[in-house]
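Complex 351.
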Amino acid sequence: MTLYRIASIPGDGIGREVTPAAYRVLDAVARRHGITFSYDEFDWSCERYLREGAMMPEDGLDRLRAYDAIFLGAIGAPGVADHVSLWGLLIPIRRAFRQYVNLRPIRLFEGVPGPLRAAKAGDVDLVVVRENVEGEYSEIGGRMNRGFPEELAVQEAVFTRGGISRVASYAFELAGRRSGRLTSATKSNGIVHTLPFWDEVVAEVAGGYPSVTWDQEHIDALCAKLVLDPGRFDVIVGSNLFGDILSDLGAAVAGSIGMAPSGNLNPERDFPSMFEPVHGSAPDIAGRGIANPVGAIWSAALMLEHLGHAEAAREVTDAIASALASGATRTADLGGSATTGDFTTTLLNHL
Ligand code: NAD
Ligand code: IPM
Ligand code: MN
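Predicted structure with nicotinamide-adenine-dinucleotide bound:
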């Protein structure tokens, strides 16, 4: 029996509703594979911030360090400014644990009423590989002259050779294991320093992967093509901000932001990786038990895969696919009336 210790951070809003659903599925599949998960729950959240003045304790990162993985629901609530809550918890975890790859698969499943007339299940099956610790999300900058007419804000995007080449290498490796096609998201026509540098480093990395066919697309055109012809893409590698935006766009193309998963990966395994749905805390639907749990459940499958249980992971994604294909039980974002718990029960039956 293999035991994995998971640091569980349900967080805020629907994060607290979708994490229990993911654990029900994880525990069910684990039993069949001789695996056990133990979850230590941390109440780090906006509620904690309002109570104690911080999203997590001062030694919070140290407390997470020894876990096999971190599972997170979502962070953010109307009473706390988003940059305070996210920079107080989620983003420090990604950075401290060098989770420089944010892996975000997108699939249009059979039976899901996607918004695009032309897209068919099977055609839309791609992965966004998002750079996750530098780029536009930078700590360098500041505000001056607050409250005066000459008030200003400066934020420096930071792109490093090491940072670009390691995420590009990860993406090329992944493309080699999938269809052998990769697209690099850029904007080197308008952004004159950082993105021409991104293009150069990606091209250098590409030289090491002659069997991968690749191209680069400016992010604006790429967004249009992702809507008009999503089937042309397999692996898309992009900077932190481009990858963020592309993953919500891709999720919408595939039917719902509620179904997109993510793995914040430290490929060297020097630190725990973190798994979380792409969506946020959804204050507009929180507390009603109607969130789609697929993003969280699929994130749990990514965690299984990361921990070396590819077969168990595939059983989970197959159960997602067959539960959606049967169409009998759907959450509200897919036009149904099932609760989070109902859909999870259906999925467990398919598992
Ligand atoms: P959001 O993803 O929370 O919600 C966007 C829309 O999608 C809402 O209408 C919501 O109801 C819907 N939605 C999201 N997940 C769903 C699900 N599982 N099932 C059904 N519908 C779902 O994005 P937002 O509104 O921009 O952000 C809300 C809060 O979440 C903010 O505080 C934001 O900063 C935070 N946020 C956190 C994370 C994270 O913790 N990883 C990610 C994104 C946003
Ligand atoms: C995501 C989220 C976060 C991000 C926010 C909440 C800071 O949108 O994980 O996609 O931009 O990384
Ligand atoms: Mn996002």
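The mean pLDDT is 97.
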